[in-house]
Amino acid sequence: MATVVPPLPLVPLHFGTNLTAPSSAVPSGRDTFSFPLPLSVQTWAVQMVVFHAVGLLFEAMDHVPALRSSKVRATRKSQYMHLLPNVLRNQILVLLPFMFLMEVFGLAFVGPSLHPIRFLVNLPLMALGHEIIQYVGHRYILHAPNVFLMKFLRHSVHHSTRASSAISACYMSPIDFFIEIGCPYLVPLSLVGGGGSGRFFHFLIAGAGAIGGLYEHSGYDFAVSFRPKFENLGEKPMSEQEKETAYKLLERPSFVTTFLADFLDNRAHLEHHMRGYVSFSDGFGSPSILDTLLRTKWDLSDRRRADVEREWARQHRDE
Question: What's the predicted TM-score (pTM) here?
């Protein structure tokens, strides 16, 4: 009589752990419950939910009359569905495999959860690393003075939207997306140790990055309500005395309005889409260190802010 062998029990696979270790081994500090997807895929899914939810919110805001004064880059028409196929192609066929491979090779999304101190230290390190990688790629590769290279990388596809629709943050050619979105996110992540296997750190980084990019490309600048209004600004040349007076008016007495005007200021990346030689990494939430040090920041220096304010107002008027 044949011997009946009972079936082996199904053991859930914990993605992000050492696959050669016993199935019961869970790294110290790691979540004790598991999901049926790798952490990299979970993080990607969270980023997609945040990206498209906020993108649709900005799309809906375009139809709210009360917000038109903050829409400094007018949208020609509803662009969400027009831009969506290109954006989804980049997110699904470029970003998702890149993130998954980082986990497979143990470069990110693996290991124990971060200690609270390491968690806090990694946040500014990620911001700094993102800025460095993006500045180098954005300025010296995508905007390099090489006609063949620029045509091959097709960075012009991204600039064609004029940063007037939030979802255009990911509207670009696949290789451009890899250089401008994938590398500034995942290269610093691997350099700080991969972020561990704690979900909160990865979800926070991915979600915050998505929101920042959406706001930069939304065409909105919510700081307009907190900046000083200059009478007849942009209508005639200003004397040196008028410029000095305008400059002094920038020093707002209210701490709250000053903070909101600076925090919500979205002119850096919008200016980049108007003038391709400024603000290669300067933008919403960016430390703006390299653009400042290398003199490519959109307003270059405080002494020129009055002139920049005047030019910004003229462009806004001409929209």
Answer: 0.76
Does a structural domain hold residue 77? yes
**Domain membership of residue 264 as a residue range:** 225-318
Q: What is the pLDDT along the chain (319 residues), one digit of tens a residue?
A: 445 444 434 334 444 443 333 333 333 344 444 568 999 999 999 999 999 999 999 999 988 998 988 898 876 665 788 999 999 999 999 999 999 999 999 999 999 999 999 999 999 999 999 999 999 999 899 988 776 777 788 888 998 888 889 999 999 999 999 999 999 999 999 999 999 999 999 999 999 999 999 999 999 999 887 776 553 344 455 666 766 666 665 555 566 777 887 888 888 888 888 877 788 898 888 888 999 888 888 876 444 455 556 655 655 555 5
Nearest to residue 35, comparing CAs of 185, 197, 186? 197
Same domain? For 159 and 285 the reply is no
Q: What is the DSSP string of 234-279?
A: TTS---HHHHHHHHHHTS-S-HHHHHHHHHS--HHHHHHHHSTTS-
In this structure, the answer to whether residues 76 and 210 fall within a common structural domain is yes
